[in-house]
Fold IS200/IS605 family transposase.
Amino acid sequence: MPGTFSQIYIQYVFAVKGRENLLLNPWREEVFKYMAGIIKGKNQKPIIVNGVTDHVHVFVGLKPAMSISDLIKDVKNNSSNFINENKFVKGRFEWQEGYGAFSYSHSQLDNVYQYILNQEEHHRKTSFKQEYISFLKKFEIQYEEKYLFDWIQ
C-alpha cells in the first residue's frame, strides 16, 4: 500500500519435534540458507537464521502485510519438506508445534544478531529450556510449563 512505512523486527524461536538433536553439520547450514530463501520469497527480510542441533532462531524484518504466524508456518512447512526430500535424517523430520515470537526495536538489531550468530557458544552454558523460559520472562509472556515444548528429561 503506497504511503505505508514500517519497521517491525521479529525473532522466532522453534524446536525440532521431541527436541531431538537432528540438525547436524554440515547440512544444517544449508537448511538455514533455505529458510532465509523462503523468507525472501515471501518479500520479507531475513536478517539471520541460526541455531543448534535441537532448535532454530530466525530473525526477520517483517512487513505488515505478512502475519507473524503465516510466515513461520511457511518456513517450518517448507524447511521440513526440504529436509525430508534431501533425506538429511533417517525417518521423517518434523518441527515441534508452536514457536516463540519476540519483537525488537531497530536499536537492538546488532545485539540480537550477535546473540543468534553465537548460538553454539551460548548453548555450551545454557540449555534451550533455560533460554526459552528466559525469553518468556524477559518479554513478560504468561505461560504454563505444561504447554511449552516437549522437553527431553
Remarks:
- The helical segments are 27-41, 68-85, 109-117, 119-122, 128-138.
- The mean pLDDT is 93.
- The two ends are 49 Å apart (CA to CA).
